[in-house]
Amino acid sequence: MTLTHTSDQPPAPPDNDTVLEADGLTKHFAVRRVGRQAMTRAPRVVHAVDDVTLTLRRGRVTALVGESGSGKSTVARLLAQLYPRTGGDIRLHGTSVTVRGGRRFRAYNRKVQMIFQDPFASLNPVHTIRYHLSRALRIHGHGGNGAAELQQALEELLERVQLTPATRYLDKFPHELSGGQRQRVAIARALAADPEALLADEPVSMLDVSIRLGVLNLLRDLKERLHLAILYITHDIASARYFADDTLVMYAGRMVEGGDSETVTQNPAHPYTQLLISSAPDPDRIVGEGTPDDTVDASGGEPPSLIDPPAGCRFNPRCPHAMDICRTELPPRLPVDGNPDHWASCWLFDAEHGPAKAESAAKAETPAETPSEVSEYSNFPGSDPPDPHETRSGSESDQGSAEGGAR
Amino acid sequence: MSSKVSGKEPVLEIQNLCVDYGLGKESVQAVRDVSLTLHRGEVLGLAGESGSGKSTLAYGLTRLLPPPGVITGGKVIYHQPGGDPVDVLRLSDAGLRQFRWAETSIVFQGAMNSLNPVHTVASQLMDVIAAHEPKMSKSARLARAKELLKLVGISPDRLGSYPHQLSGGMRQRVMIGMALALEPQVVIMDEPTTALDVVMQRQILRQLVDLRERLGFSVLFITHDLSLLVEFSDRIAIMYGGRIVEEAPAAKLYKDPLHPYSHGLLNAFPPLRGERRELSGIPGSPPDLRSMPTGCAFHPRCPKAFDPCRTDLPLLAAPADRTEEDRTGGERTVACWLHPGA
């Protein structure tokens, strides 16, 4: 199952053990003040990530979905300790860790490795694959003794990422490989540290469509064989559904919804998740099997400025269901329909504020207009009401989520 | 302007177009013998992986190929409304200048970066109009620029903005507005939404479909995202290794892809609905244009390859085993030995 150097380790703990946790993680970037502003203006910050709580478990893939600028990559970099955090806590196996370079950083990133988006930029063009991998092996103490053991470790690494025969790739330069092969080398380099958690920041976005799934399937295979905890960052919610066990949705620096991937994609609770899902390309729509697409985006689709984010729920300026409380109070994580594993940060799911709203949304749905005639700029969506009782009415979808949970 | 989506009147015919990069022995054939017809008022999708030649095709037919690229053969016939057809590849420089933007316009890949950062949106929009209609007064041009911004859903008070003051989606809309400034018959869009988020992508595409219905232009839409094309285009052509391997009405291609490559591409996008099933993508990697496989270029990656695929090149033809049903909803062609022509 593993490399020779890991076989003498004690037996692995069972799956679903918490590996890495973030608790109330916050990152603010200072805005540079130019000229006179430096004297007069108060210092301002970009609220890139606010109060993000997530857990990576052994043998599970957690997807983090969001638009560009939502702070999802910042979360990955915070977890990899590449940025110092402004607030909150990162715990590896329950122990709080703060490292700023040096030996302790090495020790930390032996356990937590990161894969970057662009394999064209993350491999050094003047070095061979052998150099990249043997360096990673040596640094993390897995290079073995002598050239023969190193060679064996290198070959095993490349075999793990399905680059076989390994000898054909070892002495190549990055430019001689295709995008998919390069990304596999980048994955192999991360595996050289024998990590417990893998942070994959859009690992397939730069690859050709036909080879994306190959890389995702490889990652899933590695997760199953090596029991890795994987954070999969993506803007493509359909691939999160395909690949991840759990999905978290981020908007403007905050988590808005989370739960089992199947539940989140099939019964999205937060209006933003609903918008995201209705915007994703869906070939079934023209073929008449999908739901008509008429979810409304009142503000023209602009995420808010993170220097001066809206008070309350950050989605409120774009939300078709926004209420007064959304503009003033930050919604807490509320369970959706009594399912403890599915939560949304939205006042619609609050017992006190939700039901009244659900009624008015249901009323808005009744007018005789057919969905195709509803104007793009009308104020209410014809479908997808945020009614918590309706969103989970289908027994079929309940089965789907149960299946997903069992995986 | 022409009326709404009409039947089968061609507006742009590409005939046996070949494009090489480089000359002599070192040359690489990027587009091989491509024939494609764009009809009036239609959205024709062109899909394929990077390196399949789809962008080269677009640049070739607009004669915008950067120097190592050479058009080595073929014709691009443009049918003017109420005029004689012209061969774009044989236009004189002056004729080409007239033709460009007034008859066909192009929205480039990463269009958000193709605006000039030191000029306002208004001056860039007016510049286009001034170049083609020099007699128009300045106030009329400004009015037209305002109208164009309104057309693409941007409030006219953004006329004085510089590109950096607009978001990516707005810049993209400005580019689309600029492409429509002279009411062209054909708009070529080369991955216009790849750099945008899904929410913005959907808004822009919806607007485009809406504008197309109002103004009646045709769109050649180039992207690698086949699931997007299935939803937005009328017909789809799939390119692989510089050739078109399949062309069919969108719904038909989605329901019943004939070429194994089209099938593979459709299976490369995990579905958002329906059951979760194991998908595999396409094994192998795209072909190297310097050493193309013999026979069908896809055969080394094809799960269904058999003997003739390795030696003989399949030609694009109406599949003999599908003619019956195809009489009802538009013709389709495929280049595959599994579905030989009639």
Automatic annotation (TrEMBL), chain A:
Domain ABC transporter: 34-277
Keywords assigned by UniProt, alphabetized: ATP-binding, Nucleotide-binding, Transport
Compositionally biased intervals (Basic and acidic residues): 386-395
Species of origin: Streptacidiphilus cavernicola
CDD domains (UniProt xref): ABC_NikE_OppD_transporters (cd03257)
Stretches the record annotates as Disordered: 280-312, 356-407
GO molecular function, one term: ATP binding
Record-linked NCBIfam families: oligo_HPY (TIGR01727)
Protein name, per record: ABC transporter ATP-binding protein
PANTHER family: ABC TRANSPORTER, ATP-BINDING PROTEIN, TRANSPORT ATP-BINDING PROTEIN
Residue spans of biased composition, Polar residues class: 372-381
Automatic annotation (TrEMBL), chain B:
Superkingdom of the source species: Bacteria
Membrane topology: Peripheral membrane protein
Keyword hit for Oxidoreductase: no
InterPro entries in the record: AAA+_ATPase, ABC_Ni/Peptide_Import, ABC_transporter-like_ATP-bd, ABC_transporter-like_CS, Oligopep_ABC_C, P-loop_NTPase
Subcellular localization: Cell membrane
UniProt cross-references to SMART domains, sorted A to Z: AAA
Annotated GO MF terms: ATP binding
Keyword Translocase part of the UniProt annotation: yes
Sequence ranges assigned to domain ABC transporter in this UniProt record: 12-266
UniProtKB keywords: ATP-binding, Cell inner membrane, Cell membrane, Membrane, Nucleotide-binding, Translocase, Transport
PANTHER family referenced in this protein's UniProt entry, alphabetically: ATPASE AAA-TYPE CORE DOMAIN-CONTAINING PROTEIN, OLIGOPEPTIDE TRANSPORT ATP-BINDING PROTEIN APPD
Name of the protein in question: ABC transporter ATP-binding protein
